[in-house]
Amino acid sequence: MHDWPATPPPRPGTGALPAGVTSPAFAPGGGAAPPPGTPRGGLPGVPASSRGAGWPVDTHAPTASARRRGVPAPGEVVGGYHLVAELGRGCMGRVFRARDPAGRDVALKVILPDQADEEGLARFRREGVALAAIRRHRNVVAVHAAGVDGGLPYLALDLVEGEPLDRALARGPLPLARALALATALARALEHVHQAGVLHRDLKPANVLVRAEDGEPVLTDFGLAGLGGADRLTRTGDLLGTPLYMAPEQIVGRHGEVDARTDVWALGVVLHELLTGQRPFDGAGLAEVSQRIVGDAPPPPSRARPGVPPALDAVVARALAKRPADRYASAGALAAALEEATAAPAPAARPGHHGRALAA
């Protein structure tokens, strides 16, 4: 893990990578140079820098005939980065530990060849643009470079040493104090993201890494992020996000209502899961999950975990209100409510019962 320099946000409306975030579309005149030997040609649609002329924009998506055959493997070099080991894979691509010529380790994310169609590139491109718009924050992964090597689009991101939050939750619910600390940090990170004009739209435990060195959560995977007016993908009927964490307006396709409060809902689902080890709206399939999200009241966490105080039940209920207007107006407001609930004294134990501290 390296202490990368902070970077300023792009000029409003440019979607440009900020100074200090490099692109293989390098030319003298601004920002930092990419690794030596990096081929020219930036990530399609992602300007290389917000600093003046001299940073060309590659607006041509690679064609099928130009695409790299197959997926790179450890030992290869992509965009000047030496691939050290595969860290993970998903439906869209793979992530590698990679090293630049200066010896700095990054996470290099590449899109799978069969996903490098117009739709796949749109998702990949929006992740780079969204991350570039966000000023550096300790709880949000940062992008360092974006480019195309042999037709293979890639993003160089912070390397976060740790484990996904969903893996930690597979071991059971967290201690209350720990659950609240994680949820509050995520709420503050979301507020920071929203202030940059970015919506995450796919917040879930699998998209949160718990940093090993300090236990802090890091928000990742902005492939479905909404930025400015470019908040819809083109595939007809595509359900963007993970249904179990979708707000009612998102799961029924009311795209015009999707805003920061949609991310607040998703964090409410994560908070419920942190407290209880259970999601509030499970089901056997998409239809059942959708019906419960739209029609069922969220179960209070204290039903599954009696040690949860009423103040936290109230926070979860408001975060999971069906109407966006009834939720917290911002992720920052949710963070403040969590902090207030943390500071509130524990309720007195009923006769014959033992009181539980918040750290239980």
Topology:
Layout: E1 77-78, E2 81-89, E3 93-99, E4 105-111, H1 118-132, E5 143-149, E6 152-157, E7 162-164, H2 165-169, H3 176-195, E8 198-199, E9 208-211, E10 217-219, E11 226-227, H4 248-251, H5 260-276, H6 286-295, H7 301-304, H8 310-319, H9 331-343
Antiparallel strand pairs: 1-2, 2-3, 3-4, 4-6, 5-6, 7-9, 8-11, 9-10
Q: Briefly, what is this?
A:
The chain has 360 residues and is an alpha+beta fold. The chain has helices at 118-132, 165-169, 176-195, 248-251, 260-276, 286-295, 301-304, 310-319, 331-343, and strands at residues 77-78, 81-89, 93-99, 105-111, 143-149, 152-157, 162-164, 198-199, 208-211, 217-219, 226-227.
Labels describing this entry:
11 strands; three-stranded antiparallel sheet; disordered N terminus; alpha+beta; 360 residues; 14% strand; 9 helices
Give a structural overview.
The protein has 360 residues and is α+β, with helices and mostly antiparallel strands. It has 9 helices and 11 strands. A 6-stranded antiparallel beta sheet has the order 1-2-3-4-6-5, covered by helices on one side. A hairpin with a 2-residue loop joins strand 1 and strand 2 (81-89). It is globular, with a radius of gyration of 21 Å. The relative contact order is 0.11.
The N- and C-terminal alpha carbons lie at a distance of 32 Å
Helix proportion: 25-40%
Rg, please?
A: 21 Å
Largest sheet: 6 strands, antiparallel
**Average pLDDT across residues?**
74
Arrangement of strands in the largest sheet: 1-2-3-4-6-5
Number of strands: 11
Backbone shape: globular
Structural class: alpha+beta
Count of runs of 4 or more consecutive helical residues: 9
